[in-house]
Amino acid sequence: MKLIINIPHLKLQGGVSSHYKGLEPFWSVSKDYNVIGKRYGLPGIVFLPYDYLKFILLCLFGGYTHVLLNPSLGKNAIKRDAVFLKIAKLFQKKVVVFFHGWSPDMVKKINNQPNAFLSAYNKADKFIVLAKSIKSDLVKWGISKPIELSTTKINEELLEDFMWQAKSNKTFQLLFLSRIETYKGIYEALKTYQILKAQYPNCSLTIAGDGSQLDDVKSYAKAHLQEVSFLGHVSNDKLKSAFKNADVYLLPSYSEGMPTTVLEAMAFGLPIVSRPVGGLVDFFENDKMGYLVESLEPQDFADKIALIINNDTKLNAIAQYNHNYAKQHFMASKVVKQLEKKIANV
């Protein structure tokens, strides 16, 4: 097998580029990354004719047997990658489509008219998805090719020199680490903390990330809350510190594929309080890993977190379980081996 993988520019922030940056040291098969889409500060449409021409030449002269496409389910991405798929099959390549982001709005549109999607994408030899719910959507639309589950990954270097140790804290820090957007549940997180702070004065909240709602969130926190810290975008040592200093990871997200930050938080021994979205529901064990809350009511999140606050035995039992589970299932070196097998077996 000689594999070509279409990816965004690795210097871009985003789940797909982060995923393959983390997998890069661990591939055992012959593979090349083919950068497509926006780069150098210019939108992807500027490079589209060049990207298609370059891909044709790679298929003609590169000696590749397999192609891995990595779209998200967004209008532009699925149209763009439908052409890459068509080109690859024209040159008789085995094609695997790995869907990452999954837009609920796009799902509704395809539900109403699945024929165009089916006609374009059922040409692939296999699909890889991050959640059983995504697989169900593809099957409903008429996809008849094999569909297998995968996961995002934890970068190995993130856990370098980290040794899990039991905590016995007089303070209790909640961590929200994600894009600061409404759909990530940032306002539910703020109101959850507001409820908890009134009952548990030893609570604090750390918010890491940036996004369109950051200024509004800062204003709300200044007016209504105490002991809220803003770290901005974090990476490398700052990312490690954010996880190490926290006691619970809170993500009341409206929708997800497979949120890498949840896997990372687990690896650092944090109980998770989130929602049953995306691939989380496929492995998450309520009470053993934390809690997935069905509703978006802040009181419901606060009630679950209250089960852990000031209960060192409960906190440490969940923390140790999460740390061990994440190291066993989500490290990049293990994820890439599974991915190679899925691609080769088409």
Automatic annotation (TrEMBL):
InterPro entries documented for this protein: Glyco_trans_1, Glycosyltransferase_grp1
Classification via CDD domains: GT4_PimA-like
Protein name (Swiss-Prot/TrEMBL): Glycosyltransferase family 4 protein
Root EC class: transferase
Source species, domain of life: Bacteria
UniProt signal peptide: none
Domain Glycosyl transferase family: 167-322
Keyword GTP-binding attributed: no
Gene Ontology molecular functions: glycosyltransferase activity
EC numbers: 2.4.-.-
Key words of the record: Glycosyltransferase, Transferase
Pfam families: Glycos_transf_1
